Structures are given as structure tokens and as C-alpha cells.
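Single-chain item
Fold in C-alpha cell form
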Amino acid sequence: MECKEDDIEHRLTAPYTPQTNGMVERVNGTIKNATIKAEDYENIDDVKKDLI
């Protein structure tokens, strides 16, 4: 598992409580936006390849 290799603690949250994941979702959005701005993409499929 990559989390263990990178010394990252994997925390689970209660199901159906999106507010618990708010900070993580915000960071994910920031990473996504930075990735899109840093690269020169031809189309949406190229963006998806990098983000997924």
C-alpha cells in the first residue's frame, strides 16, 4: 500500500458525513486545479489521464 511506503496515516471517516471530508476534498480540488494549470492539455481526456 502506498500510504505505508510514504509514511502516510490513512484515516477513515463515518459514511454519509461529507463535512468530515471537507478539508481533504478542498486539498484535492487545489491539487486538481494546480495540475490543470501547470500542463498544456489538448482535450479533457488528457486531463482525466493525469488526474485518475
